[in-house]
Amino acid sequence: MGLKFLVVGAGAVGGYFGGRLLEAGEDVTFLVRSKRRKQLEQTGLVLESVKGDAKLDPPLIEKGEAGTFDVVLLSTKAYQLDNVLQDLSSFINEETAIIPLLNGIGHLDTLDDYFNKGAVLGGLCHIESTLTEEGHISHTSSGHRLTFGERNGDMSERVKRIAASFEKSNADVQTSIHISEAMWRKYLFITTLSGITTLFNSPVGPIRKSDEGRAFTHKLIDEIVTVMRHTDEPINNDFADKAWSQFLKLSDETKASMQKDKEKGLPVEADHIQGYLLRLAEKHKCSAPYLQAVYANLKVYEQFRRDVD
Ligand SMILES: NC(=O)C1=CN([C@@H]2O[C@H](COP(=O)(O)OP(=O)(O)OC[C@H]3O[C@@H](n4cnc5c(N)ncnc54)[C@H](OP(=O)(O)O)[C@@H]3O)[C@@H](O)[C@H]2O)C=CC1
Ligand SMILES: CC(C)(CO)C(=O)C(=O)O
């Protein structure tokens, strides 16, 4: 029997990867809230993607309905997590594997505290996608990679089965036996990219073109790595160089999803992404002025943003 997937959050990330899995014929249900449910019932789940469009009619459930699932793809924003945990708990059992796709790291502690030991795998994704006004998922550049694995490095049977479910999907899904390291690398990259694109209100191109923008980015990367090194995590010597070369390879138009959300007046994950690292810096008495500047900009922005639930 195939695995039963529950995608929590039919947004830019969950809608894309869950949609690709559904398109491949797998058993995928989306946990949604009532407004999104109405929209999806009217329009279908629409992917407008450089990798191929799709229009799907996914099974939808809301909190309190019946069902248990083998795998949860968790793809809400970090600031929505507290509500999500309550809504989700009735859909999981002792065997359910939870794969979080959020940016950042802090959610792992929250999830580990809430769910059974070992339930939560490591996960991340590289994709530039956003929700349009009509609720379609707009995927604008060629990357659509989802990486997951056991955080203890095992290549477990459940990882192999989940990977097999994705085999026929139109997405680049990979397993990793170094998922914790991969998550910290992505964390460094996204803290930098979301930090600079929101601070300078700009895509990557103009930031890279100016000496000041490049110097700021360089200092920010170094500073974040210094903070990360105060943890017991596998922060290898090449972290800063790899993040810098990733930054150099981005297209001029690239913006972090945080900057896209900021342009829409939506909430941002400042406390989860930059704030978490600043709390680490404070704990270890480590100075982080560039990160502080990025965070201050986001905290000022937060006073003016739209309220959403
Ligand atoms: N977008 C991108 O390009 C990338 C994003 N990420 C990360 O992925 C995570 C998700 O981001 P993204 O997909 O962009 O966010 P979106 O805002 O597009 O999607 C989040 C979805 O979660 C839903 N949701 C929130 N709370 C609940 C709930 N209690 N029950 C059911 N659904 C709920 C929202 O639905 P509702 O309509 O009800 O609010 C929304 O559809 C973030 O951590 C982000 O940083 C990582 C890589 C790339
Ligand atoms: C940089 C990118 C698009 C890579 O997946 C991302 O994670 C984000 O913008 O949130």
Automatic annotation (TrEMBL):
Keyword S-adenosyl-L-methionine appears in the UniProt entry: no
InterPro entries: 6-PGluconate_DH-like_C_sf, 6PGD_dom2, ApbA, KPA_reductase, KPR-Related, KPR_N, NAD(P)-bd_dom_sf
MF (Gene Ontology): 2-dehydropantoate 2-reductase activity
Catalytic activity: (R)-pantoate + NADP(+) = 2-dehydropantoate + NADPH + H(+)
Pfam families, A to Z: ApbA, ApbA_C
UniProt domain Ketopantoate reductase C-terminal: residue ranges: 179-302
Keyword terms: NADP, Oxidoreductase, Pantothenate biosynthesis
EC number(s) stated in the UniProt entry for this protein: 1.1.1.169
Cellular component GO terms, alphabetical: cytoplasm
Pathway of action: Cofactor biosynthesis; (R)-pantothenate biosynthesis; (R)-pantoate from 3-methyl-2-oxobutanoate: step 2/2
The keyword Cell inner membrane is assigned to this record: no
Origin superkingdom: Bacteria
Domain named Ketopantoate reductase N-terminal: residues: 6-152
A biological-process GO annotation: pantothenate biosynthetic process
Record-stated family: Belongs to the ketopantoate reductase family.
PANTHER family named among the record's database cross-references: 2-DEHYDROPANTOATE 2-REDUCTASE, PROBABLE 2-DEHYDROPANTOATE 2-REDUCTASE
Role this protein plays: Catalyzes the NADPH-dependent reduction of ketopantoate into pantoic acid.
Protein name per the record: 2-dehydropantoate 2-reductase
Record organism: Salicibibacter cibarius
